[in-house]
């Protein structure tokens, strides 16, 4: 029996990044038809033979997260029914990742539900990037590779030749990743103490660590409404940091009034990846978007060749 070939397909959520990954892999774009019926139902058909092949489907989660996920489930189902040997779902921004536990009575654990639906649809492996919570990996009974954008940010930060840098975690949950970043760029670490009253509402009360006279780099997994990031600026400046404050975050969602908040905050630079598309109307002065195509493409290639993913980040 012939060895399976790698076939790469992408949905409608982020075709630009999908095409960039295709080029990195040196493959022809997989042939797939995706459309909507007049009633809103999603239709998908694989228009090439994938029987016995290793299929990879790229689909990130945008602000249209429900549409994106349903489309992905349907594509995976079509792949399995077309007798693909294996189906890997590459989801850089994993939808519903913030609903990973019961914080109050009678709440769902929606991240677990999404994991169940991906497995039910027929996914054999998941590849994602900078999960909001590492415990989501335990929601799956199939292999899950969690990539990190840290190498992308480290290379960029080093190219800036910044002096007297301190990496700041926006809360204790991000402290571990912030420590990895600070170690790799030779900087100190500080943590913002945050109190959250409601969803999308938080208050930063004080800074744990020394930021006086230092150039601050705030790191987070995502920027959604930008409340936490912008609220922390006042506290950091009161603690005497350098006026130049940088932000690095993997996923730039920028919902609600986030763009307005970020623009008024006066950051030296806000650096995100292209893990989900950022339309022109959400781009602002000081925003830098870095490509994740090479990182995602390398992970896909290594999975196919049964090579280590971890060594990408050593």
UniProtKB/TrEMBL annotation:
<comment type="pathway">
    <text>Metabolic intermediate biosynthesis; 5-phospho-alpha-D-ribose 1-diphosphate biosynthesis; 5-phospho-alpha-D-ribose 1-diphosphate from D-ribose 5-phosphate (route I): step 1/1.</text>
</comment>
<dbReference type="GO" id="GO:0002189">
    <property type="term" value="C:ribose phosphate diphosphokinase complex"/>
</dbReference>
<dbReference type="GO" id="GO:0006164">
    <property type="term" value="P:purine nucleotide biosynthetic process"/>
</dbReference>
<dbReference type="Pfam" id="PF14572">
    <property type="entry name" value="Pribosyl_synth"/>
</dbReference>
<keyword id="KW-0460">Magnesium</keyword>
<dbReference type="InterPro" id="IPR005946">
    <property type="entry name" value="Rib-P_diPkinase"/>
</dbReference>
<dbReference type="InterPro" id="IPR000836">
    <property type="entry name" value="PRTase_dom"/>
</dbReference>
<protein>
    <recommendedName>
        <fullName>Ribose-phosphate pyrophosphokinase</fullName>
        <ecNumber>2.7.6.1</ecNumber>
    </recommendedName>
</protein>
<dbReference type="GO" id="GO:0006015">
    <property type="term" value="P:5-phosphoribose 1-diphosphate biosynthetic process"/>
</dbReference>
<dbReference type="GO" id="GO:0016301">
    <property type="term" value="F:kinase activity"/>
</dbReference>
<comment type="function">
    <text>Involved in the biosynthesis of the central metabolite phospho-alpha-D-ribosyl-1-pyrophosphate (PRPP) via the transfer of pyrophosphoryl group from ATP to 1-hydroxyl of ribose-5-phosphate (Rib-5-P).</text>
</comment>
<dbReference type="GO" id="GO:0000287">
    <property type="term" value="F:magnesium ion binding"/>
</dbReference>
<dbReference type="InterPro" id="IPR029057">
    <property type="entry name" value="PRTase-like"/>
</dbReference>
<comment type="similarity">
    <text>Belongs to the ribose-phosphate pyrophosphokinase family. Class I subfamily.</text>
</comment>
<dbReference type="InterPro" id="IPR000842">
    <property type="entry name" value="PRib_PP_synth_CS"/>
</dbReference>
<keyword id="KW-0067">ATP-binding</keyword>
<dbReference type="GO" id="GO:0005737">
    <property type="term" value="C:cytoplasm"/>
</dbReference>
<dbReference type="GO" id="GO:0009156">
    <property type="term" value="P:ribonucleoside monophosphate biosynthetic process"/>
</dbReference>
<keyword id="KW-0547">Nucleotide-binding</keyword>
<feature type="domain" description="Ribose-phosphate pyrophosphokinase N-terminal">
    <location>
        <begin position="7"/>
        <end position="122"/>
    </location>
</feature>
<dbReference type="InterPro" id="IPR029099">
    <property type="entry name" value="Pribosyltran_N"/>
</dbReference>
<dbReference type="GO" id="GO:0005524">
    <property type="term" value="F:ATP binding"/>
</dbReference>
<keyword id="KW-0479">Metal-binding</keyword>
<keyword id="KW-0418">Kinase</keyword>
<dbReference type="GO" id="GO:0004749">
    <property type="term" value="F:ribose phosphate diphosphokinase activity"/>
</dbReference>
<keyword id="KW-0808">Transferase</keyword>
<dbReference type="Pfam" id="PF13793">
    <property type="entry name" value="Pribosyltran_N"/>
</dbReference>
<keyword id="KW-0545">Nucleotide biosynthesis</keyword>
């Amino acid at each position: 029996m012939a060895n399976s070939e790698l076939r790469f397909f992408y949905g409608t959520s982020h075709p630009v990044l999908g095409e960039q990954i295709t080029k990195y892999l040196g493959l022809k774009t997989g042939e797939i038809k995706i459309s909507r019926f007049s009633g809103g139902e999603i239709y998908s058909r694989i228009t090439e033979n994938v029987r016995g092949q290793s299929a990879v489907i790229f689909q990130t989660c945008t602000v249209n997260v429900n549409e994106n996920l349903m489309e992905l489930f349907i594509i995976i189902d079509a792949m399995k029914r077309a007798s693909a040997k294996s189906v890997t779902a590459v989801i850089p921004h994993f939808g519903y990742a913030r609903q990973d536990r019961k914080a109050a009575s009678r709440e769902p654990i929606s991240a677990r539900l999404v994991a169940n639906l991906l497995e039910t649809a027929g996914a054999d492996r998941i590849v994602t990037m900078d999960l909001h919570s590492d415990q989501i990996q335990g929601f799956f009974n199939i292999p899950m590779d969690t990539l990190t954008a840290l190498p992308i940010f480290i290379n960029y930060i080093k190219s800036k030749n910044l002096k007297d840098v301190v990496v700041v975690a926006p809360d204790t949950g991000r402290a571990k990743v912030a420590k990895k970043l600070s170690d790799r760029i030779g900087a100190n670490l500080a943590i913002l103490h945050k109190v959250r009253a409601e969803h999308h509402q938080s208050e930063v009360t004080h800074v744990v660590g020394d930021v006086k006279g230092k150039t601050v780099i705030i790191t987070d997994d995502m920027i959604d409404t930008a409340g936490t990031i912008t609220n922390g600026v006042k506290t950091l400046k009161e603690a005497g940091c350098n006026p130049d404050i940088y932000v690095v975050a993997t996923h730039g969602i920028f919902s609600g009034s986030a763009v307005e908040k970020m623009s008024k905050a006066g950051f030296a630079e806000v650096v995100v990846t292209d893990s989900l598309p950022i339309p022109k109307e959400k781009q602002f002065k000081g925003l830098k978007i870095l490509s994740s195509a090479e990182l995602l493409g390398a992970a896909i290639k290594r999975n196919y060749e049964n090579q280590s993913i971890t060594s990408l980040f050593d």
